[in-house]
Amino acid sequence: MKITVFVKPNSSRREIKQITETEFHIKLHSSPDKGKANVELIEILSEFFQVSKKKVIILKGHFSRQKIVEIINN
Of the chain's two ends, which shows fewer C-beta atoms within 10 Å, N or C? Predict the structure, then answer.
């Protein structure tokens, strides 16, 4: 399943908000420096979808706030 994610780094709280079935707005504590926000994004999405971190793959937008992420449910 592919989802669109809008990320807000450096937030005071961690939060995931589902806008539509495939669109999410996510607030992260981490800054985007050296991929820290991407690591936290994978962590929070793996918890939300209850899959391992290896099954959450950022396909597009590694350096952008808007990302396309694939969640593998197998």
Answer: C
User: Can you give the CATH number for the domain in which 66 is found?
Assistant: 3.30.1200.10
pLDDT in tens, 17-59: 999 999 999 999 999 999 999 999 999 999 999 999 999 999 9
pTM for the predicted model, two decimal places: 0.93
At CA 45, angle to CA 43 and CA 48, rounded to 5? 115
Q: Going by C-beta distance under 8 Å and a sequence separation of 6 or more, which residues neighbour residue 17?
A: 24, 25, 26
Number of domains in the chain: 1
Q: What residues does 23 pair with on adjacent strands?
A: 4, 20
Beta strands in the chain (DSSP E): 2-8, 15-20, 23-27, 56-60, 66-71
